[in-house]
């Protein structure tokens, strides 16, 4: 009851925001949602674990596959890290394509994901991936274990990205790499899509979603989704630069995902507003 109240308040709050006050360097909405306390954080994690996972369990292979961008990320890691080293995929999903690729390429691969269903699937996809259920913001591994900690297509689902970055750094050994991508909130299209996600659903859209849910229940197919809150949040790279500064982290670079899905280093810091996806590479 308490949690439901929290997210009802959250949706109302997001709906009442004055968009013109949004500042480029600080996601007011993000801060606002986080400030509402743990309630929405728990809701977002529950949503990822119980609802989103039912979509992702087939979507990765059927809809997305092994994209050119993913292949470029894999090649990048293979160039940085010698075979035989120990990697961990944070938010590993079904293990396809990244963990599976790395295991077959000769790495020792671990994985962690918030969804038990996805972890079960990951074990089926490749039993040699050593994976378990867990939260990116509280990694159940001891310090300095991995030569590379990577996290792709996932940071925008974490309620507290800084905490996940801390954890990824903690489990990575000295001289190892932490590599993760973010949706760039400075990019017009990314920001527009985010704003649309924040506006509470009303009218026809709401009726359509509710009708779909009822069909799913009657036909006993698919998972009804009654939720209506934003669980996917882009990041301003400036907030990550600030965080790195606070933590005295200077050994990093940013790669941008270009239109042809290739990766290119474009200097260390910037708003990179032409690019929707940025990859942070830190050497610990
Ligand atoms: C879009 S999928 C990407 C999965 C995988 N990285 C891939 O590229 O195929 C996002 C993943 O993040 C996971 N996830 C979301 N929040 C998480 C959290 N707090 N801790 C661990 N995993 C989480 C989801 O369960 C899901 O598997």
Describe this structure in words.
The chain has 284 residues and is an alpha/beta fold. The protein has a domain at 63-185 and 233-283: Rossmann fold. It is built from ten helices and eight strands. The protein has an eight-stranded mixed beta sheet with strand order 3-2-1-4-5-8-6-7. Helix 6 links the parallel strand 2 (108-113) and strand 3. Helix 1 crosses helix 3 (38-64) and helix 3 (38-64) runs parallel beside helix 6. Mean pLDDT is 83; it is low at 1-38.
- In what order do the strands lie side by side in the largest sheet? 3-2-1-4-5-8-6-7
The proportion of residues forming helix, as a percent range, comes to: 40-55%
What is the terminal separation in angstroms? 43 Å
By DSSP (H or I, 4+ residues per run), the number of helices equals 10
Q: Class by helix and strand content?
A: alpha/beta
Instruction: State the CATH class of the domain at 63-185 and 233-283.
Output: Alpha Beta
The largest sheet is:
8 strands, mixed
Taking all residues together, what is the mean pLDDT?
Answer: 83
Question: From the 3D coordinates, which CATH architecture of the domain at 63-185 and 233-283 would you assign?
Answer: 3-Layer(aba) Sandwich
Query: Using only CA atoms, what is the Rg?
Result: 19 Å
Q: How large a portion of the residues is in β-strands, by DSSP E?
A: 15-25%
Shape: globular
- Would you list the SSEs in sequence order as H and E? HHHHEHEHEEHEHHHEEE
CATH topology of the domain at 63-185 and 233-283: Rossmann fold
């Amino acid at each position: 009851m308490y949690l439901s109240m929290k997210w009802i308040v959250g949706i109302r709050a997001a709906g009442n925001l004055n968009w013109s006050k949004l500042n480029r360097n600080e996601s007011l909405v993000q801060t606002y949602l986080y400030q509402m306390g743990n309630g929405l954080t728990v809701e977002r994690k529950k949503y990822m674990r119980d609802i989103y996972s039912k979509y992702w369990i087939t979507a990765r292979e059927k809809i997305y596959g092994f994209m050119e961008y993913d292949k470029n990320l894999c090649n990048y890691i293979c160039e940085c890290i010698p075979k035989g080293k120990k990697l961990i995929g944070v938010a590993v999903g079904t293990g396809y394509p990244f963990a599976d690729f790395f295991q077959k390429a000769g790495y020792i691969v671990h994985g962690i994901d918030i969804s038990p269903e996805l972890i079960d699937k990951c074990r089926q996809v490749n039993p040699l991936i050593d994976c378990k259920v867990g939260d990116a913001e509280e990694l159940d591994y001891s310090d300095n274990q991995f030569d590379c900690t990577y996290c792709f297509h996932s940071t925008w689902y974490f309620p507290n990205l800084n905490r996940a970055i801390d954890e990824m750094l903690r489990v990575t050994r000295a001289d190892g790499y932490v590599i993760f991508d973010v949706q760039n909130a400075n990019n017009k299209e990314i920001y527009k899509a985010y704003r649309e996600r924040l506006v509470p659903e009303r009218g026809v859209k709401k009726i359509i979603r509710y009708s779909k849910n009822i069909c799913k229940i009657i036909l006993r197919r698919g998972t009804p989704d009654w939720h209506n809150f934003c669980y996917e949040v882009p990041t301003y790279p400036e907030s990550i630069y600030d965080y790195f500064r606070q933590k005295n982290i200077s050994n990093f670079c940013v790669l941008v995902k270009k239109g042809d899905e290739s990766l290119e280093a474009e200097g260390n810091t910037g708003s990179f507003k032409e690019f929707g996806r940025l990859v942070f590479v830190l050497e610990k």
